[in-house]
Amino acid sequence: MLLIESFYEGVRAATDQLELDFGYRTKSRLRAKLASGDEVGLFLPRGTILRGGQKLQARDGRVVEVVAAPEDLLEVRCADPLELARAAYHLGNRHVAVELGDGWLRIQADHVLEGMLIGLGAEVLPLRAPFEPEAGAYAHGHQHPGDGSGARIHMMGGQ
Question: C-alpha angle 53/59/60, rounded to 5°?
């Protein structure tokens, strides 16, 4: 089995592809098959989210491109930006992964959320496409007091 433990940042073209849906692209430990049929084991840092187009470096030197596989999604559109913001708020309140586009939101297909969105007045269309949701506010890490970020802890009583 081919082992992949790191990302590739160079200019070499990929020689193979690893197609995964979003659920699998959030796994840092994974056994899968490349487009060539070769079996691969991913051992990436915990918390890694793979994105379509990223390149990985196999232990044998091969460069493998990540492909975001098409999956069942719902595209949400609204009559105006305020209604779309309201739909986004309610999805975020439920901690739903959301992909943002110009005038639309996309979520993984879910009949309960579909009903909620329709109830909010949104137009909801099923589609099959790659899913690349927002990574979240802390996806690139956040800083803590004492780490040089300038953050301060304010103690009660002015201490």
Answer: 100
